[in-house]
Amino acid sequence: MSRFIFACALTLASSLAQAGTAHTLAFGEPAPAEKATRTVEVRLKDIAFEPASLTVKAGETVRFVLINEGQLPHEFNLGDKAMHAEHQKQMIAMQGELFTAAVGEQGMGHGAMSGHDHGAGHGHGGGNTVLVMPGQRAELTWTFKASAPIEFACNVPGHYQAGMVGPLIIE
């Protein structure tokens, strides 16, 4: 598990350097849950999101409550197509650790990693991504800035390609 945490921390540092600043992206930034003006529940299924698309307003702070109803680990990641493509490469490099964490998580019977900054990994804990183990819940709160073509997606290897992605429209 410590190798997973270390790898996650290195990946986050690389991602943040590419983003330009620690937690601010062109389309917004993480926010504390108490700043949310709206709560949106998103169900993560094996291989789909419900709802399939989301709409927010520029300037709005949204608290996403994420519920993994599937049998597989899933993530909720906010980003543009290029960010998702880069994140997918990082996830492939760490898929063994992800599987080991998922197996250990199920054996423990609780969500020790769900919604946690488990080393900040590959965006997890960096604000725009949260990993949710099967049967667990997590939250992500985000303040949306200007309109930008972004998506919410699961970048666990193969999930994006199988259609676990949806448009997020910022009005």
Report the sheet with the most strands, covering strand number, pairing sense and barrel closure: 5 strands, mixed
Helix proportion range: 25-40%
Alpha plus pi helix count: 3
Beta-strand residue fraction: 25-35%
CATH superfamily: Cupredoxins -  blue copper proteins
Low-pLDDT segments: 1-22, 106-123
User: What is the mean pLDDT?
Assistant: 78
What's the CATH C level? Mainly Beta
Give the overall shape: globular
Q: Per CATH, which architecture?
A: Sandwich
Write the element-wise H/E pattern from the N-terminal end onward: HEEEEEEHHEEEE
Sheet/helix structural class: alpha+beta
Measured between the Cα atoms of the first and last residue, the distance is 41 Å
Rg over CA atoms, rounded to whole Å, is 15 Å
Number of strand elements: 10
What is the spatial order of strands in the main beta sheet? Answer: 1-8-5-2-3
At CATH level 3, the topology is Immunoglobulin-like
Whole-number total of structural domains = 1
Description of the structure:
The protein has a five-stranded mixed beta sheet with strand order 1-8-5-2-3, with no helix packed on it. It has a five-stranded mixed beta sheet with strand order 4-10-9-6-7, covered by helices on one side. The chain has 171 residues and is α+β, with helices and mostly antiparallel strands. The protein starts with a helix and ends with a strand. The protein is globular, with a radius of gyration of 15 Å. It has a single domain (2-170), classed as Immunoglobulin-like (Sandwich), CATH 2.60.40. The chain has helices spanning 2-19, 81-93, 95-108; strands at residues 28-30, 38-45, 48-50, 54-56, 61-68, 74-79, 129-132, 137-144, 150-153, 165-170. Strand 2 and strand 3 form a beta hairpin. Mean pLDDT is 78; it is low at 1-22 and 106-123. It is built from three helices and ten strands, in the order H-E-E-E-E-E-E-H-H-E-E-E-E.
